[in-house]
Amino acid sequence: MQTLNPDRLFPAEPTQRRIARDLYDSVKDMPIISPHGHVPIEWFATDYHFRNPTELFITPDHYVTRLMHAHGVELADLGVNQSDFSESQAREAFLTFGRCWRRYAGTPMRYWFEDSLERVFSITEPFGPDSAGRIYDQVNEMLASPEFSTRALVRRFNIESISTTDDPVDDLRLHDQVIADPDFGALLAPAFRPDRYLEPAAPEWASLVDALGRSAGVDASGYEGFHEAMRRRRRFFKEHGAVLSDHSHMDVSCERLADDEAARLFALAYAGSITAADAARLRAHLFNDQARLAQEDGLIMTLHPAVHRSYDQYGLETYGRDIGADIPARSEFTRALKPILNAYGNDSKFRLVLFTMDETVFSRSLAPLAGYYPSVFVGAPWWFLDQPEAMLRYFEDTVPICGFGKLSGFIDDTRALCSIPSRHDTNRRVTARYVSSLVADHRLSLDEGYEVMRGMIQTQPREVFRLNP
Amino acid sequence: MQTLNPDRLFPAEPTQRRIARDLYDSVKDMPIISPHGHVPIEWFATDYHFRNPTELFITPDHYVTRLMHAHGVELADLGVNQSDFSESQAREAFLTFGRCWRRYAGTPMRYWFEDSLERVFSITEPFGPDSAGRIYDQVNEMLASPEFSTRALVRRFNIESISTTDDPVDDLRLHDQVIADPDFGALLAPAFRPDRYLEPAAPEWASLVDALGRSAGVDASGYEGFHEAMRRRRRFFKEHGAVLSDHSHMDVSCERLADDEAARLFALAYAGSITAADAARLRAHLFNDQARLAQEDGLIMTLHPAVHRSYDQYGLETYGRDIGADIPARSEFTRALKPILNAYGNDSKFRLVLFTMDETVFSRSLAPLAGYYPSVFVGAPWWFLDQPEAMLRYFEDTVPICGFGKLSGFIDDTRALCSIPSRHDTNRRVTARYVSSLVADHRLSLDEGYEVMRGMIQTQPREVFRLNP
Amino acid sequence: MQTLNPDRLFPAEPTQRRIARDLYDSVKDMPIISPHGHVPIEWFATDYHFRNPTELFITPDHYVTRLMHAHGVELADLGVNQSDFSESQAREAFLTFGRCWRRYAGTPMRYWFEDSLERVFSITEPFGPDSAGRIYDQVNEMLASPEFSTRALVRRFNIESISTTDDPVDDLRLHDQVIADPDFGALLAPAFRPDRYLEPAAPEWASLVDALGRSAGVDASGYEGFHEAMRRRRRFFKEHGAVLSDHSHMDVSCERLADDEAARLFALAYAGSITAADAARLRAHLFNDQARLAQEDGLIMTLHPAVHRSYDQYGLETYGRDIGADIPARSEFTRALKPILNAYGNDSKFRLVLFTMDETVFSRSLAPLAGYYPSVFVGAPWWFLDQPEAMLRYFEDTVPICGFGKLSGFIDDTRALCSIPSRHDTNRRVTARYVSSLVADHRLSLDEGYEVMRGMIQTQPREVFRLNP
């Protein structure tokens, strides 16, 4: 038997550890604010019950599956993209996870899993090859009870607000249903994710444009109509609770075209005869349009560019997207975002939250931009960087340049429901660790440290994302 | 009441903290050596009295103003570029600073300001929204006394040498006057900053060339004359105490052209009909010429390239340059500097000090270059990086590769006079912190630690910049 | 007198230090596994006796010589590339080293040298300008004894396996001789280093191709023959104990050409009339072929691209290659390696170990790739990064993303024989330091820490490089 150490993730030095513990204690029970995530709306709408521990912890979480794949496990054996994955296969996948467990030492996936096992399922037996079967059975039994339905977990996790990520043509009917239901405790927000509609080089683009037009009740087959359709769908999302639009292209170029040039390229693209270079120019213009619309409607833009999506062709063909085969790329924000920032950067209604997996831009680009422009905030460490070491580097790279007040606050960005409290708790512990270093070397008083903690965990995310509980 | 903790910025672990304290104590009272800065020569020449605390601490310091701007304060309300900023407006700006104070938590601007308040003005009341008015009044009263004139502060700050940054056509009359005055305690050096004269694409370039020619007494309208004018103005600066030339282009390309090609492009540029691409080639050549001249006259070259200057067009038009809207860019030194380094890199008379705000080049480029070439030194962390976290990263990135002996020593690079002792003290504390880590893990003896400290604070900057007190 | 502190390189905080010490103690006596290095095979074959301490410690070690050069010492005076370097010159070079000694504070060269002096030569007098002569004489005397021959040192250093780096046309006769000799205690492996044969733009390329063909007994003057020659030489190396091929081009582009296009460009290159652009395309294809062959024959590919080799033209002409004038370049792996990874990345027989001196790619590229692909491992910090600070950054950048199990284990990469145990010991101490941080903040139990240590020092390098002792 082991139990989670109450001082986990705190610094080793005793004086600083005491400070970190006090700082953490002051925020540890605050409700969870989650402005961006990927939990499927269907789970909330149906109060979904997970069928087994593998469906809860392994199959949908590419953080977990990619590392077993890296040690030679086939994704099929973990249930990825398997329409018919039996109970015995699920149990076998869990045993495989147990056998691979030592490979997770030092990773956040290990930390979150252990944390969830104890805090959600009260299991304190160490996980590993010997215990995986027993733990599977225990969790499996608990999952069947009403206390472990999706909504019960949302309540238990003390979630104040949560967001899904949605297609622009989504009718948001399920969102309306959940929002209207007093049984669902949290503030729910859809998020507007138009990426696919802004990539005119993709073969399916014209049909996406048509679908967008249909959903907006407008003929979108020309540039003007498309723009109007976007305007309407953004407003529709906003009326249904959205606070942000979410964007992830390879780069954030946003040079505008002349109006007639935009219309000309749009027509070429719609006809399927645009060149790659012109498609890139049109995409930059359409992305710029999103900023223009954001300045009108007040949806916050969150950007997390520069990923080689579905890098592994075999994986894509066999298992589809989002299997952990996305690899970050070098990113450039400053030069690329100049058209948008020069147009709207000083406008307090406009707001841009910049995320990255390229750590080199924190001190060189993002913090300097956020430290000048009222509209710019530096997003929390993203995806591969969502772990204690990278969080500490992030604070050290940004805070001295733009202060805590220009950071976004934590983003969990996950579909792994059970990991949400663990991820937020990790962030609270690591934030306390960083702030304790400023208190320990006498740059902040302890009282100021408490204020910074409250800001980072509660005030800041509410303000940055305009979430009013 | 609070007072500055004597152990501020030291590591938390008690044994290491004691070592850091001892190391710091051994250098804390050494005179300040400031080989590069931006205090206006007029202040020294006239023994300027600051009119109020806002003029001292806020308006001229874009480190301070940009962060308030990032939280929605108009720069006009802080006095930036306001020809007629009244006493009551100044007081209001200081109150605004007080209201924004909590936004500075974790930044060096906060640290320097608190440090200055106590060490220069003996104010120990915590600054903030409630105390800003009282503190304004106290500082204001003190500023009126002779003890707080510019020269009195220079004496009190124990400044051994200080530098201004000057235009090549400056007649250095004010410098001569200050140097000749026994009342001015420090060694004063102008610095040769020819950037504008090396950018042939700029619309004002031809008239700058004419002015340069006039100041040198030579017709500079052709390439040969221009080169001779540069040679003369550099010598003039050297004769008037300059030890370095200072350069900040977007990149450090320095490929030479054939002589006749240089002359041809120069003529095109002077006629205002050069293309952007050719202007870039000519600039590289003219920049190479600076190195050639440096090898003749022995002025040290300091380089800090790769900044998007005046990124915000609105800010530039409304408030001018240097308002905190400069954003660092990715930088590349190794490939770009090859022509200069292959020509003069092994020459002990030639000297190049390389600064950056792109931290990725410390371990990949600058330390390896400095660890091979006798002429190359790695400059101190620059501008946005002038803060404890980045200083520590800088030491960790460079020292293992090129040793302490190829670092430049600290550069304050500021026009904020009162922050000079605070910045140097920060550097001494953080240097002690880094060296204490080497002593604590038994890589250096304490005696060697003392020697390294003396080197970094005193011997090294004197030697690198050839400053003989 | 001083002696090496048993706690050197451990963290300062006492609790964490105790953990680090325990972790280190558990691996400190394990045999050395060295999958990649540069000790000349002649030394092993002849049981070479070093003529003097300068030949042992200074002349062949460009880590040591470059820093003296950076402080103005001519490489000739250190014996670099001097065919006739007398005993008195050698002694003088050692005294120069003593005078420069303080310049090495904070560098790994200092650490390794002190460590070697005490652990190999039992010298505890501090090295420096005053003691250099005495120490020279003591070491000199010892070197003459049989205990200090190359093979005696290999035995004493407890080396389990060691590798040389060899030209593809090497007949490996000396390797065979050493392997057959029961007197040589370690497993010896040659390594296949084909770089020069894959650069068709080089003037000597056609003659290299001829030599390769001769050694393979095949006409290599056409593409098919060349490919067959490569296949045979790789098999020859494998049959003689090689486990890996080693590659260091400026970039790792590997786009394949159509077969006839490859043949056409090969013919042009062989005739000496290929353009630079086509040579780059051909090189990418030939490099891709190495991966194709690796997938057949199972030699592991180790890659360490992106270095400006022999940056200093004067140094190259005067002293030749490998004098410490190689400067790292920015590197890009993800986009460049896509053709190879999409072809063989999921194949468990294929294996790629990626090294870099560009630290920005650890968290952005290498760890994400290794965290997905079974074939990819992240190589140990390379060359300039082979020091405690960079090692710690490496662990912090990679482990949270890909876990310990996708790291290569330590690589000493050196020709400085006496530094081998010091380098491995440094790695063991720093690995213990990193793992102790995970134990101290309760992310790993101490027992798991021991398991990780054993993995990193022993199991992992054996498995990754398929070395079976």
UniProtKB/TrEMBL annotation, chains A, B, C:
Q: Which InterPro entries match?
A: Metal_Hydrolase, Uronate_isomerase
* Coiled-coil region list: none
Q: Kindly list the biological process annotations in GO that this record carries.
A: D-galacturonate catabolic process; D-glucuronate catabolic process
What would be one Pfam family of this protein? Answer: UxaC
Q: What are this entry's molecular-function GO terms?
A: glucuronate isomerase activity
Q: Does the keyword Isomerase apply?
A: yes
Which pathway is this protein engaged in? Answer: Carbohydrate metabolism; pentose and glucuronate interconversion
UniProt EC number: 5.3.1.12
Q: Reply yes or no: does the keyword Amino-acid biosynthesis apply.
A: no
Superkingdom of the organism of origin: Bacteria
Keywords assigned by UniProt, alphabetized:
Isomerase
User: What catalytic activity is recorded?
Assistant: D-glucuronate = D-fructuronate
Would you identify the family this protein belongs to, as annotated? Answer: Belongs to the metallo-dependent hydrolases superfamily. Uronate isomerase family.
Under what name is this protein listed? Uronate isomerase
Lineage, opening ranks = Bacteria, Bacillati, Actinomycetota, Actinomycetes, Bifidobacteriales
